[in-house]
Amino acid sequence: MARRYTSDLSWKDVTPKSVFLNRRQILAGSAAMFGAGLFAADAQAQEALVPNSFEDITSYNNYYEFGTRKEDPARFAHMLTTQPWSIVIDGMVDNPGTYSFEQIVEGMTIEERIYRFRCVEAWSMVIPWNGFELADLLDRVGVQEGARYVAFETAFRPNEMPGVRLPVLDWPYREGLRLDEAMHPLTILATGLYGDAMPNQNGAPIRLVVPWKYGFKSIKSIVRITLTDTEPYASWNAAQPNEYGFYSNVNPNVDHPRWSQATERRIGGGLFAGRIPTLMFNGYETEVASLYEGMDLAAFF
Ligand code: MTE
Fold first, then answer.
1. What is the DSSP string of 2-37?
2. pLDDT tens digits for 115-139?
3. Where are the domains of the chain?
4. Which residue in 121, 181, 196, 235 could disulfide with 177, CB within 3.0 to 4.6 Å?
């Protein structure tokens, strides 16, 4: 089993669901009580972590295989057949093979993780994912000595994905992590949100979530996971290397060449509408800063 993530942002399986639901009500309740005025657009607002509505999370998406407008995935992603689904796991592993979705999730502890989610376009949400630690899957297939990176690939299905007719990216969508990032307990493979199966527009049936990195690292609808000793191809990095680095850690001090990364617009009306400061590593600095010790984060952006 992977090292389990134990900050209060996670939801451990040992906690009864009723207690969790109660906690969510308390959060929502106190937010309502204080009213919008008292919660200034400051770090406090970041800390409250009230999840966005299901409606927000499933209607404002980036999934370019279904079009480049935020509403396109919700309109077209139903075209993707997600059952049956399998993932090829290959490269430097002891047990390479083609695993069905059912084989992959079998025996995994599916937990709820309420994560800040920060897109590189400077908008953000708080999303209650359901998933398991990627490390648990990697441990199961057996990572071989010498492997240093994990490469991921999304399905490429021109018949089901109208967006891939446009050469926005060199399809299929691909991403990668360093092995220590992939093994970090915050890194999950998500299979749902709000306790239900993953909606297609959010990356059904299984997608990566790396909460301290810009959202484009969190690749959707994964069909291949490859362990390798060389830095993998990453779609946005390859398309515009001066704008999107391989690491893409959320960093308010390193701007995108065309816009500031110091603040973010929290999606969803009401309490957290408007801009709030972006936190280093998206608020997960305590957990992940040690991964980058000694690295110049402006050079390795
Ligand atoms: N994965 C694939 N295959 N295709 C995409 O276009 N967009 C990325 C990421 N994963 C994308 C993807 C970007 S830019 C973001 S911000 C997140 O997915 C959005 O996830 P969400 O729609 O679930 O919020």
1. PPPP-STTEE-TTS-HHHHHHHHHHHHHHHHHHHHH
2. 999 999 999 999 999 999 999 999 9
3. 18-292
4. 181
